[in-house]
Amino acid sequence: MPPESFIRLRGRRFAFVDFGGPGPAVLALHGHFGRGRIFAPLAAALAGRYRVVALDQRAHGLSDHGGGLTPDDYVEDAAALLRALDLAPATVLGHSMGGAIAYLLAERHPELVTALVVADMTVRNEEPETHPVLDVSGWPRRAASREALGAAIEAHGVPDAGYFLDSATEFDDGCGLLFDTADMMTSQLALAGDHSAAWSASKQPALLLRASESFVLTGETANRMARERPGTELVELSGCGHWLYADDPDGFARAVRSFLDRTHAHRTDSPAT
C-alpha cells in the first residue's frame, strides 16, 4: 500500500494514492464517507495493466475539509487532478457518490475521460428510488477506541460500521473519523436530485455495475440507465450489497478488468486512435 501523496489544486490540499505501474490511467473516486485507500485491492488486481490513482475527495480522508461541497466542486477537483498529473484522458471509476461525480465529469469534460465505470450509483438520487441522505449529525466525534467508535456508529442504526471505519484514525483525544459529519450532511444534500440528463449526455463507453442487494440502485433504474445511454454495459454482481467492491472483490475486479481490456483494445484497433 503506497502512502498518500499531496497536491494543491484550486487553492486546496488534496491527498491521493498513486498505485503506479504501466498502462492507461484509471482515476478512482470513492463515495461519501470514504477515502482513496479503499481501492487498494482493485489496484492490485489491475497491476501491470493499468495505473490506478485514487483521490481523497474534498472533505474526505486526508484532503482539506470545508469549503464548497456541491457536485460541481467535486467535478472540478477531479478535472484539476487529471490535468495536474497529466493523466488525461483516463478511465474514471466511481463508487456511489463517486460514480455520480464520474458521469458528471464525463459530461462536462469529455476530453478528459475515455471511459466510465459507475459502481452502484443511481441517476435518480432521490426518494423513493433511494434515501439520498444518511443522517450522521448525531454520530460521535471521538471514542475511546476503534471498536468503541464502531459500536457507537452501529448504535445509530448502521448494521455494519466497517466501511466507515476505513476513515477512522487516532487523534490526541481519542479515535475519530477523518470526515466532518456536518460536511457530510451538506454534501449529501447537495447531491440529491435527478441526474438523468447528465448521464445520458455523455458518450464514452461505460460499465454500470449493480449490486444485487443494492439499496441505492434499483434493477429497474439500472436497466433504464443502460437502455437509454448507448455504449453502456450493465453487469450485476450477485449476493453483493452496496459496497460491492468489498463484498466480492474478485468479481468486481474481473468485471472492471474485462471492460477496460475490451475498451482499450477497441481504441487501439480504431483508425481514429
Indicate the low-confidence ranges by residue numbers. Answer: none
Task: Please state how the strands of the largest beta sheet are arranged side by side.
Answer: 1-2-4-3-5-6-11-12
Number of helical runs? 10
Mean pLDDT: 96
Strand content: 15-25%
- What about the largest sheet? 8 strands, mixed
Large-scale geometry:
globular
The helix-strand sequence is EEEHEHEHEEHHEEHEHEHEHH
Structural class: alpha/beta
| Count of beta strands | 12
Summary tags:
22% strand; two-stranded antiparallel ribbon; globular; eight-stranded mixed beta sheet; alpha/beta; single chain; 273 residues
At a glance:
With 273 residues, the chain is of the alpha/beta class. The chain has helices spanning 40-46, 71-84, 97-108, 146-154, 162-165, 181-191, 196-201, 219-228, 244-247, 249-269; strands at residues 5-9, 12-18, 25-29, 51-55, 90-95, 113-119, 124-125, 168-171, 174-177, 193-194, 206-211, 232-237.
Give a description of the structure.
This protein has helices spanning 40-46, 71-84, 97-108, 146-154, 162-165, 181-191, 196-201, 219-228, 244-247, 249-269; strands at residues 5-9, 12-18, 25-29, 51-55, 90-95, 113-119, 124-125, 168-171, 174-177, 193-194, 206-211, 232-237. With 273 residues, it is an alpha/beta fold. Helix 1 (40-46) links the parallel strand 3 (25-29) and strand 4.
Layout of helices and strands:
Layout: E1 5-9, E2 12-18, E3 25-29, H1 40-46, E4 51-55, H2 71-84, E5 90-95, H3 97-108, E6 113-119, E7 124-125, H4 146-154, H5 162-165, E8 168-171, E9 174-177, H6 181-191, E10 193-194, H7 196-201, E11 206-211, H8 219-228, E12 232-237, H9 244-247, H10 249-269
Parallel strand pairs: 3-4, 3-5, 5-6, 6-11, 11-12
Antiparallel strand pairs: 1-2, 2-4, 7-10, 8-9
Helix pairs in contact: 1-10, 2-3
